[in-house]
Amino acid sequence: MNSAEYKVICPYCGKTAEYVDSKEIYGISYGMIYLCRTCCAYVGCHRGSKRPLGQLADADTRKWRHRAHSCFDWLWRKRYFSRGSAYRWLAEQMGLDVKLTHIGMFDVEQCKKVIDVSRKYLIDINKQLKKHGGIYERNRTAKN
User: Backbone phi, then psi, for 34, in 5-degree steps?
Assistant: First the structure.
């Protein structure tokens, strides 16, 4: 799809979002976004493109997407998985095709599931590491 052909529809009110500078939201420019003025839902764009990073999100959805990324990204940033393997694992956990596994497209409930499965994985792997002596545990005594 040609970048001029993007028509981003707000999932909350059904109106077409405007392509505007993010300065309208943040006070300084971080690039272009799609904005629904009616719902104050917005989404950023891929750098140098009009292609949206995901679906428009209201404040609550943005909060949960941020939380989901914080938990999930830990898996590949700390090298439990490569990034691609992490997304394949997440797709399996979510019951989605890997091509549809993008937190920027998820709703609040899907984001909560991302958090749950990511945390469960980290808890399980840390239990295994502790069992085999592969994790450093600090002495947690109180300081005087």
Answer: -105, 130
* pLDDT tens for each residue of 21-55: 999 999 999 999 999 999 999 999 999 999 999 99
Q: How far apart are CA 100 and CA 17, in angstroms?
A: 22
The model's pLDDT over 58-82, given as tens digits with 9 standing for 90+, comes to 999 999 999 999 999 999 998 889 9
**Buried/exposed code over 20-57 (b: 16+ C-beta within 10 A; e: otherwise):** eebeeeeeeeeebbbbbeebebbbbbeeeebebbebbb
Two tokens, residue 112:
């909560």
Tokens 């917005």 found at: 42
Per-residue pLDDT of 40-49, as tens digits, reads 999 999 999 9
Tokens of 57: 């999100």
Nearest to 34 by CA among 45, 23, 25: 45
Phi, psi of 16 (to 5 degrees): -75, 130
Q: What is the rounded distance in angstroms from the CA atom of residue 90 to the CA atom of residue 87?
A: 5
